[in-house]
C-alpha cells in the first residue's frame, strides 16, 4: 500500500498549496491513501468546516488536528458528525470527536489513523502511550486491517521518538507533527515501523514556523506582547512523507516529500 501524510497546513498559503498538490501527488505517487494534519489551517489557529470539506474534496482521506483543535468553535459540531476528522486520542473522556478513524478504501482494504498529543511542554492530557496502547489492543495489523498510521503531535523530539519505539512492529508508521520543521530522520525501525520525528509544515518557509517573521522576531527580542502573529503568505512548500507497506502492513519504505516554495524539492520515484 502507498500512503502519504502531509504535515501541518499553515494558513491560506499552506492550505491552498495542499489542496492543489493532493490530486497531483495521488496520481504521481499512485497513492492509495492520504492523511493531512490541518490544525493550523485557519489563519494559523484551528480549522474551519469549509476548509475540511475542501481538503476532503481534494482527496484527503483523514484529517488530524492537535493542540489548536478547538480554536475555531464551529468545528465542534462538525467533528461530532465527520468521522474522518480526528483530534488527539488522549483528550479526556467526553471531549467532542474521536481520536482515531478507520477508513475502508474502494478496494476493501482498511486503514486506521490515530493521533496522540505529547505532554512535554504541552497540555497535561492523559498518557499518550497508555491511551494508544489500549486502542491497539482492539485494532491490530492483520488480514482485516492493512495499515495503521499514528500521528504524534508533540513538542519534544525525545517524546516523539520514544513513542515511535514504543509501538514499533505494531503499526505501519509513526509520524510527528506540531513543530513545523521537517526532520531528516526518515527510517524503518527494527520491527518494521516507519518513523519520522516531524513531517514539517505545508506553508511559507520565509517565516518563523509559518508566521510572519517580523512580528515573531520582535516578540523574542523585546519579550513583550506585540502585534498578533499572522501567517506568512508567500509561496508554500508542501511537506510530508511517503510510506509504502508490505502484505503484512509493516513498512518497506519511507521517504520525504517536499514540493514548491523555498525548500529543496524531493519526490520519491514510484
UniProtKB/TrEMBL annotation:
PANTHER family: 2',3'-CYCLIC-NUCLEOTIDE 2'-PHOSPHODIESTERASE
Superkingdom in the source lineage: Bacteria
Name of the protein in question: Metallophosphoesterase
InterPro entries, alphabetized: Metallo-depent_PP-like, YmdB-like
Pfam families referenced in this protein's UniProt entry, alphabetically: YmdB
Amino acid at each position: 500500500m502507498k500512503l502519504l501524510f502531509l504535515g501541518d497546513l499553515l494558513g491560506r498559503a499552506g492550505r491552498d498549496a495542499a489542496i492543489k498538490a493532493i490530486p497531483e501527488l495521488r496520481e504521481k505517487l499512485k497513492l492509495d491513501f492520504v492523511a493531512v494534519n490541518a490544525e493550523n489551517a485557519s489563519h494559523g489557529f484551528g480549522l474551519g468546516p469549509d476548509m475540511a470539506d475542501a481538503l476532503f474534496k481534494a482527496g484527503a482521506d483523514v484529517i488530524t488536528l492537535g493542540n489548536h483543535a478547538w480554536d475555531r468553535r464551529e468545528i465542534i459540531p462538525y467533528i461530532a458528525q465527520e468521522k474522518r476528522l480526528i483530534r488527539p486520542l488522549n483528550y479526556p473522556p467526553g471531549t467532542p470527536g474521536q481520536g482515531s478513524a478507520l477508513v475502508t478504501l474502494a478496494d476493501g482494504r482498511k486503514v486506521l489513523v490515530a493521533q496522540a498529543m505529547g505532554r512535554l511542554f504541552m497540555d497535561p492530557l492523559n498518557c499518550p502511550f497508555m491511551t494508544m496502547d489500549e486502542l491497539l489492543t482492539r485494532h491490530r495489523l492483520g488480514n482485516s486491517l492493512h495499515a495503521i498510521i499514528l500521528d504524534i503531535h508533540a513538542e519534544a523530539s525525545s517524546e516523539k521518538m520514544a513513542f515511535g519505539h514504543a509501538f514499533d512492529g505494531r503499526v505501519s508508521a509513526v509520524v510527528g507533527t506540531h513543530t513545523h520543521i521537517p526532520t531528516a530522520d526518515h527510517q524503518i525501525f527494527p520491527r518494521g515501523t516507519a518513523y519520522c520525528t516531524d513531517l514539517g509544515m505545508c506553508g511559507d518557509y520565509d517565516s518563523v514556523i509559518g508566521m510572519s517573521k517580523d512580528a515573531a522576531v520582535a516578540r523574542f527580542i523585546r519579550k513583550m506582547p506585540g502585534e498578533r502573529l499572522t501567517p506568512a503568505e508567500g509561496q508554500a512548500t508542501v511537506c510530508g512523507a511517503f510510506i509504502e507497506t508490505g502484505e503484512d502492513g509493516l513498512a518497506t519504505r519511507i521517504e520525504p516529500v517536499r514540493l514548491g516554495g523555498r525548500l529543496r524539492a524531493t519526490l520519491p520515484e514510484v
